[in-house]
Amino acid sequence: NAGVTQTPKFRILKIGQSMTLQCAQDMNHNYMYWYRQDPGMGLKLIYYSVGAGITDKGEVPNGYNVSRSTTEDFPLRLELAAPSQTSVYFCASTLPGPEAFFGQGTRLTVV
Amino acid sequence: GQQVMQIPQYQHVQEGEDFTTYCNSSTTLSNIQWYKQRPGGHPVFLIQLVKSGEVKKQKRLTFQFGEAKKNSSLHITATQTTDVGTYFCNGGSQGNLIFGKGTKLSVKP
To answer: Do the chains contact at A33 and B31, CB–CB below 8 Å?
Structure first.
């Protein structure tokens, strides 16, 4: 049971490039979330999904897009990367239930 | 949206000292969860509190939920270097998990 898997673990992007951060969970969880965590800071919710085909904005959605075509996958798309998007990105999932399971994170640097 | 404030933002303690972090909400919470994130790691679920006035213990960690369900605390007795990390509370609804900024704990051996 792998839990929540994020790829890649590290990535360096040039300003203006695009990329997709992958997130997959094998626990059949309905709810999935994307967070960003700037150095020394807390977690900011970017987007979340309550089930396949349903997504909604969180606290800081600008510059990002998501899709949820299956229960397992919740990719995060960055279009036109900017230095302000340098951060660690965490994907999480819950059943519903009290415990959110987090992936290992993707460390993204935009230069 | 729901606002959850955590204090203090940072806490430096000597090993063996106690530590407490507080989580305060402007609105009544249905429940609250606590997470720990080790340096360089990802958040890991510690516990959920649901009932007014609830107190739960995990070894040296004591979690409390206020009577009005608007605040919560995490108390660590006799801190150890393994307690280092950031402690987050989460009081959002299921589909919109909003975390506080966290309290970063450092422990001097």
So the answer is: no
